[in-house]
User: Fold 3-methyl-2-oxobutanoate hydroxymethyltransferase from Cellulomonas dongxiuzhuiae.
Amino acid sequence: PRRVRVHHLQAAKERGERLTMLTAYDAVTARIFDEAGIDMLLVGDSMGNTMHGHLTTLPVTLDEIIVAARAVAGAARRAFVVADLPFGSYEAGPEQALASAVRVMKETGVAAVKLEGGERSVPQIRALSQAGIPVVAHLGYTPQSENALGGPRVQGRGHAAEEISQDAVAVTEAGAVAIVLEMVPAPVAARITEVVRVPTIGIGAGPQCDGQVLVWVDMAGMGDWTPRFAKRFGEIGAALTAAARDYADEVRSGTFPAAGHAFDA
Ligand code: KIV
Ligand code: NA
Assistant:
């Protein structure tokens, strides 16, 4: 399969072909999603919640992102792989952002990094872009700022719609190659999608974005709770529970391992 590259994202927008993105945090899921034809894989700092058992994304470290990103980039043959810059790895300014992003690019093999923020992150986006590192921006609800935003809440309603649109233009002018829009009113996301050149990837941002992204455990039905903007496309949690129960039953009853699973002397 031909590798998805940055110009393919732009071409998809121009042709009106919707882009698909899922998170992945390890080689197992990266291979599965890549083989399923998912265009973009995001090594998201949502791994803090989904994989590491944290309540927020804030504790996730650059080292943790790098380990996961190396696994995902190594397993994906076609997908465009993006790694999140975690909280604390870029806010201090363009130099800190560049140092963090250079580490990610040198040590993992991903195609791009993602960072949160509009106007406030423009110097960082410009510095990385000028260094040849593609940047995906992330606007709307930005989980790394959840303490300031008061938790997961729709951003860009009313007067704030204009602000988020300006942010979208600003990050595009700074060099962002795509923009994630999270929990943004559908009409606002639609207007941003029309106005900016680069693809918008929505999560809780309605159907008019150029692409969609979901956290894979939400998409696969792994948790007991699913955000309103997500949809369970499978019941993998229930399937895994059933497999583990069957395994335990067969071990306890002596059915597994059978003769064929054992070795002769
Ligand atoms: O970390 C993540 O999973 C994300 C997506 C929600 C866009 O940033
Ligand atoms: Na993230």
